[in-house]
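Structure record:
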Amino acid sequence: MTAPQLSFKELRRVVIAAAVGNVIEWYDFYIFGSLAALLAPKFFAQSASGSDLIKYVGTFTAGFLIRPVGAFLFGRIGDLIGRKYTFLITLSGMGLATALIGLVPTYAQIGATAGVLLLGLRLIQGLCLGGEYGGAITYVAEHAPDEKRGYYTGWLQTSPTLGIILSLAVIIATREIVGPTAWPAWGWRFPFLLSLLMIAIAIYIRLQLQETPIFQAIKAKGQTAKNPWKEAFLSQNIKYVLIASAVVIGEGVVWYSGQFWALYFLQQVRKPDTLSPAIITGVALLIATPSLIFFGWLSDRIGRKPIILAGFALAALTYYPLYTALGHAADPANTNWVLSILIVAVMVSYVGMVYGPIGAFLAEYFPARIRYTSVSVPYHIGNGWGGGLVPVITTAAYLKAGLSTALIYPIVVPSVAFLVGLWLMPETRKMKIWDTQTVGAPGR
């Protein structure tokens, strides 16, 4: 089997169609986290120790922890019935759960039940997101030519970052439109409710997609997996799942430490100002997001492994001086806006190094018949568990013991991932997923 000779315009359409739903799902997922400082006392009892914020961040984290379960469930569906319809299901579920968060009564209205309802909807979000990424990255990878897979999947890798940018932009715009009085009272609900419109547009776009050529080929030949779970986790493939999970855990910690905890850290430094952290983080993300595409492209030329390992090393070595400098630069009494934005942009560029090539690596590492399952589970173990714990661990540690303690987890995990990747991570750049032997067979 050979790769379809798609034009640049056709490939661009594939990437955009996959990415638009991805961006909106990540918007849905992160609008919750972006409003942490405002919504924590809305849904949990306030206390001087900041326990309401820790509970809220814990609820945010619960959505991460359940993501591998969603990957496990939807990965099986994706390998049995196809990539296209599976991520239509996850997209619909995410949009409904997000809109319902915008309707949940506050703690002042219904007491502790507010937090319980919030947790339930957050878990639905996590389940749906667990099935989204594997479908999107597999869909793009199974259209792209072997020699440009890093470049095209690199474009898709911008979608989580763009989702954060979109969430911050909607927050800023809504706050300015409704005013500073209405915003904390009821205006915060609008970004959640807006999700319904966004999801409807994304579903319409995705309905225009065709199934991937590789899945069509293996389905026509009767080569689809009969039991994706057994082939992925009860065979030699489990070794590759574990290696991929270890690498992605490091990537996930760098991702959340360099982007999302930067926002949380700025909120703590500048409290109760919620607008400035959003502006600093949003501008930095806009500046550095192209690094995801660049490092995806570069990985097509020099390999996935050296770029990912370099990102781990730089993050582990420089997080402490960067966050120390950011705390000084973002001081409300004397804010250095340019330096604050530059520091966050540098940390986002580390995200570009570890995250830009990871989609191509995962797609190349696993065979087509179990690719959806095998890509989804390691990705969401790494990002859902490894990365997802960053907000709650770092926030709790920062509130109790300061910056030095808060950065232990973001520094140690990439350091360990670097060592594991150095010895066990293979280079997959030259893997030809279009070869007949690798399309349906479970071997490497």
In short: Residues 246 and 417 are 6 Å apart (CA to CA). The longest helix spans residues 149-187.
